[in-house]
Amino acid sequence: MGRKGNVRQVAERRYWREAEARVLVEAWRSSGERLSGFARRHGVGPGRLGRWVSRLGEGGSTLRFHPVRLVASPPEQSPIEIQLVGGRRVRVPRGFETEDLRRVLAVLEEAKTC
After folding, report:
1. Tens digit of pLDDT for each residue in 11-35?
2. How far is residue 17 from each of residues 36, 55, 101, measured CA to CA in Å?
């Protein structure tokens, strides 16, 4: 199926995963159209497409930095608490695996956009 077919299929979906949204964002960028016109032509809300454009960034990376505020040093056995934008909190024990935290944060980011 051609690229136009892929764009149409993704546009009709209620929820987009990153790879699916990337199809629409790349199609919009290569179209030369204004975002609102492209979105309207494909039956997609311009705000929804705009959020994915912002999320994927110029280089297509989903890496984002969040503000961090350090609090007084916790006792050695206390978990580390991370407060995310929107008020959600994640607590991880000392000595956690960083890859585990990356996966948890990715799931939270995905859930936020659904």
Report:
1. 888 888 888 888 889 889 888 889 8
2. 21, 12, 20
Query: Which two structure tokens, joined as six digits, stand for 7?
Result: 């764009």
Binning pLDDT at 50, 70 and 90, where does residue 1 land? very low
All residues at 6 or more sequence positions from 78 whose CB lies less than 8 Å from its CB, including other chains? 94
pLDDT at 79: 82
The two beta strands, 89-92 and 80-83, are antiparallel
Percent of the chain with pLDDT over 70: 82
C-alpha count within 13 angstroms, C-beta hemisphere, residue 20: 13
**If you count DSSP H runs as helices and E runs as strands, how many of each does the chain have, helices first?**
5, 2
What are 26's two structure tokens?
A: 């790349």
CB 90 within 8 A of CB 82: yes
* Structure confidence by residue, pLDDT tens digits, 69-78: 777 765 667 7
Q: Distance between the two ends of the chain, CA-based, in angstroms?
A: 26
Place of tokens 């297509």: 60
